[in-house]
Amino acid sequence: MRKLLLALFLLPFFSGNIIAQLNIGYVDSDTIMKELPDAQDAQTKLDNIIKEWQDELARLEKDYKGQLDEFEKRKLIMSDELKTQKQRELDKIKQEVEKYRQDKFGVNGELFKKQDEVMKPVQNKIFTAIKEVAEDEDLDFVFDRSGDILFLYAKDEYDVTSKVLAKLK
Predict the structure, then answer these.
(1) CATH class for domain 22-168?
(2) What is the pLDDT of residue 152?
(3) Spatial separation of the C-alpha atoms in residues 169 and 144, rounded to whole Å
(4) What's the mean pLDDT in 135-140?
(5) pTM, rounded to two decimals
């Protein structure tokens, strides 16, 4: 316990030298994604895929709703047997619509796989450029300003976003 207290007491005296030797930079990944043509192309491709799936889902839902409305209008004049049959058909269609939604947009759906497939090459390219800039600038750490790390203050001289963009172009 005494050693721990001694270490905690001495830490401020030695940490200044360690921190003074660190070279830190940051990038704004939002800016990189906005300005990098590859990222824009990948996002456009992904948006087109999503729109196609949303249109198909809307068509399936509209078809289901139309059949459900038709059933509701006619169920009073249907026999019990026909009602039961139509209800089963509607339940099956509803399950198919929900399955499509889950297959495309669910937690393990195709959307996440497509995002990974389309964006992975762009991300790898960006990470490679960040690594090269960090090595060129002799940086110990590079943080992402637009990420979860909260920057209360950062000098512009440590912003390497433009250098990463230059490396990518």
Answers:
(1) alpha beta
(2) 43
(3) 20
(4) 86
(5) 0.70
What helix, strand, coil percent values describe the chain, rounded to 5?
A: 80, 5, 15
Domain boundaries, the chain: 22-168
Question: What tokens does 128 get?
Answer: 């490679």
Measured in residues, the chain has a length of 169
Structure tokens at 16: 């200044």
- On whether the CB atoms of residues 25 and 142 are closer than 8 A, the answer is yes
Per-residue pLDDT tens over the stretch 62-103 = 999 999 999 999 989 999 999 999 999 999 999 999 999 999
List the helix and strand counts (H, then E) for the chain: 6, 2
Collapsed DSSP state (helix, strand, coil) of residue 161: helix
Residue 12 has which token pair?
């401020």
State the DSSP code for 143: E
Residue 5: the pLDDT is 36
Residue carrying the six token digits 């270490």: 7
